Amino acid sequence: MLRSPMTATVATACLLGAALIFPTSLQASPSGRTANGCSAGATKTLVSAQRTYAVDVPGVVRVYRKPGRGFVTRFGPVNVNGVPTVLAALDAVIGARCKATWYRVMLPLKPNGQTGYVRARSVRLRPVRTRVVVDLSTRRLTVFDRGKRVLSAKVAIGTKATPTPVGRFYVNQRFRDNPSGVYGWAAIGISAYSEVLHGWPQGGPVAIHGTNRPSLLGMAVSNGCVRVSNATVKRLWRLAPTGTQVLVQV
Fold first, then answer.
1. pTM above 0.85?
2. Both 175 and 203 in a single domain?
3. pLDDT score of 21
4. Which of 100, 140, 154, 223 could disulfide-link 92, Cβ–Cβ 3.0 to 4.6 Å?
5. Which ranges constitute the DSSP H helices of the chain?
């Protein structure tokens, strides 16, 4: 479990335009309806085995339960730890000319698993080609790059009293630390929170991080975080930028 922020390092990447345009139709029909299979209000998934999308927040963004209805919260360009705010895209709601008008995104909020909608013009999408799977039963972490396994490593997980939460999350912040400290070489924060440590700072955020006690890898010993070796977290740092989707399963 992350107790406090460390020195932040932000990965850079090419940004897409503010809204995706889907290739099935780039023109509106004479009747004003979107042609060639793109109907206004339709939903397109933005998640595949080969690619997902990070959602970078350049300014203040409002989040809704439904497109334009049911205000949930707002995010600024920087989170509570002073690093850029990043969300993860799930779907796009299509408007005129096959252009995305809203994105359904994963939210770094308690309780775990919340999603909401942000206006496409308010954010910027960034393609991510990797995804991470943490299997609690085998105590292994696997990274896939465009569907191909590129990393597999042993992990330590939460105890029975402080279990690692299960679900679909994403990398929302990354920090570098003292390699000899409890977080090892780096901590890669994900959008999950402990479901039992209610008094923990910032609600008990969960991370995948290095360790100064590698002999405990493979055991259920943490407060909910996923521990890996420092060698593994160095590789993960290169492979999993913010916005990378993370599945924690049993």
1. yes
2. yes
3. 64
4. 100
5. 230-239
